[in-house]
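P.,

For your records, the input lines for the assembly:
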Amino acid sequence: MISFTWDWSYAIRVMPVLIDGAMVTLKATAAGTVIAVFGGLLFALLRRSGNVFVSKSAGFFVEFIRSTPLLIQIYFVYYILPEFGIRMTPFLTGVISLGLHFSSYMSEVYRAGIDGIPRGQWEAGISLGMTKLRIFKDIIVPQAVPPVIPAMGNYVISMFKETPQLSAITVLEMMQAAKIIGSEEFRYLEPVTMVGVIFLALSLGAAYCIKLLSRKLPMQGIPMK
Amino acid sequence: MSKPLIQFTDVTKKFGDHIIFDGFNFSVFPQEIVTIIGPSGSGKSTILRMLMTLEKLDGGFIQIEDEYVWHMKKNEKLVPASEAHLRKMRKKISMVFQHFNLFPHMTVLRNVTEAPVHVLKLEKEEARLRAVELLETVGLGDKIDAYPAQLSGGQKQRVGIARALAMQPSILLLDEITSALDPELVGEVLDVIRNVAKEHRHTMLIVTHEMYFAEEIADRICFLEGGAIVEEGAPRDLFYNPREQRTKDFLQSYMSGKAGS
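Structure tokens returned:
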């Protein structure tokens, strides 16, 4: 019989294990964010390439990733890539899958930011003889990024909430820790509830931070002296 | 007369189905200051933009001295220019824009040093010294650490001029540089151009609606309508003694428009 009364002593006893799991969750989110932020920028730039083959391939790849479930991508990287000799730890697999998946969303965010820059900025750069790369690096990206940081932050929160999917490939993140405790002790109520509360608290906290941050963003672009 | 510095030969340009130029020919001589006037939509700015490589040609050629702007020679044949060739040609030309197009996230100084450092490969310190000097000549020596948003329209455009001059171009293109300014700020920008014209003798191609300025500064005025130069000549002749009826009509309507406003 599973009892529905809340057992505080049990909850306190399993807390450290869940906190260890939460650390893994946060690490996965942080590493995934780094991949998504740079991968997203890379995809956004490749999609704007003058080379049609490059831009179409990048566009196809982004659409493909956005249109297939994260869970399938995680399974694919973990179970199928080793057939081709690419073998990674569960954590690394999870981080790369998360990062790639969200880089496809991030690339759309960057694209919105880049499209928002007036054409005159490009024309000034071209007229001054700058290379395309230089125009991107010094003129477009510094102006395109600050306005889209809130949107990027929201995707980071989404990514954070998707980390339980890594439990499918045995990554010992928060949800996996709760599942293991629950199956060992035949009590899921406390660990799963606590995982939910931790997710809720961190997501709300992060959303509040984004709100604060978005008021301080330099809307004229990242200042360059 | 000497050989033309800039030569448009049989240039064709379309925007969608709308043909702007069909077999357009035009040349500018070294150190000449040419002003293009004409009704809106006649393609005045497009001439400058094609030369600056901001608008592609649909046919014909543009040459600067003996080199083609939009083409290059490969095994004795003319082929479309590579990006590197276009960049090389751009170094000869600088443009000042109607809407300034300053980089809003950069200080005034950085706006002026950015391209000299990265394109002309000047040492940072040298670029800085030259930029400060240029900004002083346009009267903005005290604004070098300001951002464009902190400047008036006239000040912004003077930064735009300093930025263009910092590239040490042989050709300077001015595309309606006072059209976006409040009337009381036009004078300070035109004064800067007067000084530039006096001191540097760049070859200049100017599109403007300021007729008095055009008369004063230009060696030659071209009246453009319907994608062709209807009439051209020294400012005095063209303004006070136009031969073509269409030129007369344009000047007439322009003057009455001015008087009415």
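Two observations worth noting. The interface with chain A takes residues 52-54, 83, 87, 90-91, 93-95, 97, 99-107, 109-110, 114-115, 118-119, 145, 147, 149, 163-164, 167 of chain B (CB under 8 Å). DSSP finds nine helices and twelve strands in chain B.

Regards
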